[in-house]
Every structure is written in structure tokens, then in C-alpha cells.
Design the sequence.
């Protein structure tokens, strides 16, 4: 979630241009970009000297402003250890302010500081360490999925180039079936064996990351509770936790919908009104996973699936219906993560099968590292779900906005106000 920054800090604004091995800082004093005076610029200071430099030259009232980049979040967390304030601003806007004919680290540091003072820059939420680690794992897993698909397509393309078409039931991971699909020359066989090795390696990497994700979901009650929602299993549940992080930074379901990018774009300028799709804004990575979940929901007999198919029939567009179901899904996630819950008395067969699939992705090696059996994990997961948050995805219900209490578990179920449409 992005919010506008306060352009009137108590102390100085420190424009901070950071690189992997060094940083440049510009100390600005003044209420506006025009009135701000550059007190001093520290150019190309080794990053290893960040904390001593901050203690010596900055006060607790100064605010360090960084452009979002690879190590900006780490810098913010490091400065927090010595009681120095820091914030990260959106890199897209900073790039637009860059002058094409002249640029260096000194100019960039001053530009970042003045952009903050102008009040037009937008803040990027700095994730805590656990959320950052989960985001890293999510991105690595998505890359392994992409690599797996690339290798499968490459092998299929190689076979097609040589006039070979495998049966639909054939598995590309079956080396013997692939190698015996035609009379290959020695060189062709060598190339095909190399492609199969790459595919097996991609599969091993994907299985490794999926095992870690499954273990993380089973160990975290909040992530596990998300799997109660139709269309959500361990990958989507983990990604929701990684991208959303602290749900309290979203004041309403609408703000979370906007953050993910499931609100349609529009342009109400001039005489005409243009309404577009959901692409081009928001978190594309999480939105893609929610769309996958929405597709799976439409193939069930869930009430939301019936609502989605009815919308599909009226509008004549499956894509529109899928996006609408995904929007309902992320709204349900907001209420669940906010702590509105009821007691779960038993694990139904559908949820039991879902737990079994999640545990199967842990794998034999994962179970051995945990020192547990499938039965142990199933019992622990069932107990966690019965004590955790539940939110039923009801297509006919709208919720009024409520003031978040200090303790979510203290919300009585009869205080959840609902309006039937």
C-alpha cells in the first residue's frame, strides 16, 4: 500500500542514493524544494560505514529518504538499529524526475530529497524481516515454475522439429519414453539427454521450494487458515502472506483490492468515460495467482462458483467472471486476516483432501528433517484450523466497514454487521 509522505519533517531530509557497495547522501534543510538548502553532501561513502556515519552525522529527527531498489529495505532496517528514521519512496516517479542529459550520485541524492519535500512522492511499505524472507521464497519459487515450463516447451519443440508427437498421456519426465519415441542419431540423443537433465533439475528445484512453502504454511496458523477458502491452497496462501504482510496497513477491503490490482481501470476525463480491464496496475504476481484460484473455483459447485457462472452467462465473458470471483476472494482474505472468525467443529472431506495434498508437497525429505510423520502433520494442522480464523466466502453478503479493535479475537460474532443485497 502506498501513502503520500509528510513534506514537513521536524529535522533535515537526507536524500540517499544507495548502491550495493557505497552510498551518497545529501543533507537538506528547509520546508519546500525551492527553500531547501543543501548543507552537505557525502559522496560514495562505503556502505560498510553506514552505521558509524549515521551516528556521527544524523540526529533522531532527521529523515533518510531512499529510492526503492535492491537493498533499500535492508538499509532502512540497519538505520533502525541506531534509532535513525528512514523511508522508501516509489522508484517509478524518481525515474521520471531524472534528467537525461546529466546525472550522477550527487544529483540523484538531492533529487530524492527534494521530491520528498514536494509532497508528491509515494511511500513504499518496508516489510519486516519475516515478510521479506517470504517474498524472496515466493519469487524464487515462481522462477522455478517458469523454468520448469520453459524446459517442457523446449523439449516439446525439439521433438516437434523432428516430427515426433507424444501421446497426451505421455510424461516428459519419463526419459525412456522420450528417448524411444524415434530413431535418434548419437548426436540427437546426446542433445535430448541434456534437455531432459535440465528438466529434471528444474523439477527438483521446484519440488524443493514447494516443500519449504508447504512446511511454512503448516507451521503458521494464519497462513493455514487461508486454505479454508475455496480456491486457496498452500502456494496461494503463502503468497498472500508474503505480499500482504501486515493486514492492518489496509484500512478496508477496497484498499487491498486496489493494492492487488483487481479494481478495473477507468478514465472519466472530458465528455467520455473509458473503462478498462484489471491489467497494468497493482501486484501482478499475486493477482495472477488469485486468477488461477478463481478459475478453480468456477469449476466447483461452491456458491461463489454458481454466482460467477451466472455473471458469465449475463455478461458473456469468462474473463470478467473470473476477475469478479478473484475480487470476492481477496475481500474474503481481508476479513479473515483481520481476525473475524468462528469456531470450526470438524474438518470436512474437501478440506481434509486439501490438507493431504499440502502434506504430500512436504515430501519424504521434508518429513525427515521435521522428524514427523504425515499423521503428525495432519493432526497438528487440523488442531490449528479448529482454533484459527474462519471466514465463509458468501457471494450474497456485503460487510460494513468497522473500527478494528485492539484484539481481533475479542470480536463477538454477533457484532459482525452484514447487509444482504
Sequence:
Amino acid at each position: 500500500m502506498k501513502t503520500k509522505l509528510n513534506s514537513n519533517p521536524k529535522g533535515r531530509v537526507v536524500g540517499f542514493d544507495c548502491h550495493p557497495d557505497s552510498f551518497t547522501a545529501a543533507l537538506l534543510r528547509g520546508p519546500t524544494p525551492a527553500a531547501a538548502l543543501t548543507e552537505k553532501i557525502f559522496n560514495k561513502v562505503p556502505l560498510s560505514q553506514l552505521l558509524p556515519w549515521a551516528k556521527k552525522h544524523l540526529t533522531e529527527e532527521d529523515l533518510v529518504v531512499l529510492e526503492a531498489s535492491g537493498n533499500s529495505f535492508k538499509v532502512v532496517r540497519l538505520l533502525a538499529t541506531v534509532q535513525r528514521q528512514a523511508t522508501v519512496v516509489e522508484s517509478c516517479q524518481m525515474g521520471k524526475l531524472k534528467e537525461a542529459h546529466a546525472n550522477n550520485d550527487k544529483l540523484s541524492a538531492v533529487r530524492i530529497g527534494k521530491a520528498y519535500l514536494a509532497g508528491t512522492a509515494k511511500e513504499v511499505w518496508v516489510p519486516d524481516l519475516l515478510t521479506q524472507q517470504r517474498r524472496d521464497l515466493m519469487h524464487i519459487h515462481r522462477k522455478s515454475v517458469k523454468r520448469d515450463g520453459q524446459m517442457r516447451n523446449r523439449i516439446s519443440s525439439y521433438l516437434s522439429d523432428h516430427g515426433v508427437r507424444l501421446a497426451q498421456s505421455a510424461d516428459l519426465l519419463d526419459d525412456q519414453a522420450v528417448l524411444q519415441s524415434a530413431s535418434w542419431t548419437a548426436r540427437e540423443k546426446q542433445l535430448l539427454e541434456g534437455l531432459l537433465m535440465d528438466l529434471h533439475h528444474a523439477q527438483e528445484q521446484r519440488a524443493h521450494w514447494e516443500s519449504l512453502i508447504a512446511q511454512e504454511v503448516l507451521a503458521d496458523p494464519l497462513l493455514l487458515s487461508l486454505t479454508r477458502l475455496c480456491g486457496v491452497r498452500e502456494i496461494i496462501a503463502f503468497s498472500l502472506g508474503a505480499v500482504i504482510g501486515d493486514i492492518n496497513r489496509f484500512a478496508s477491503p477496497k484498499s487491498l483490492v486496489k493494492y492487488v490490482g483487481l479494481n478495473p481501470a477507468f478514465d472519466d476525463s472530458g465528455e467520455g468515460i473509458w473503462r478498462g480491464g484489471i491489467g497494468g496496475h497493482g501486484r501482478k504476481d499475486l493477482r495472477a495467482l488469485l486468477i488461477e484460484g478463481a478459475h478453480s473455483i468456477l469449476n466447483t459447485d461452491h456458491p461463489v462458483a454458481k454466482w460467477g457462472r451466472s455473471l458469465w452467462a449475463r455478461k458473456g465473458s469468462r474473463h470478467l467472471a473470473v476477475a469478479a470471483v478473484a475480487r470476492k476472494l481477496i475481500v474474503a482474505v481481508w476479513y479473515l486476516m483481520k481476525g473475524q472468525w468462528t469456531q470450526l467443529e470438524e474438518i470436512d472431506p474437501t478440506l481434509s483432501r486439501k490438507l493431504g495434498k499440502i502434506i504430500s508437497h512436504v515430501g519424504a525429505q521434508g518429513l525427515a528433517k521435521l522428524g514427523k510423520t504425515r499423521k503428525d502433520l495432519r493432526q497438528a494442522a487440523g488442531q490449528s484450523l479448529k482454533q484459527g480464523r474462519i471466514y465463509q466466502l458468501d457471494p450474497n453478503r456485503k460487510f460494513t466497514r468497522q473500527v478494528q479493535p485492539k484484539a481481533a479475537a475479542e470480536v463477538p460474532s454477533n457484532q459482525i454487521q452484514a447487509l444482504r443485497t
About this structure: The two ends are 29 Å apart (CA to CA).
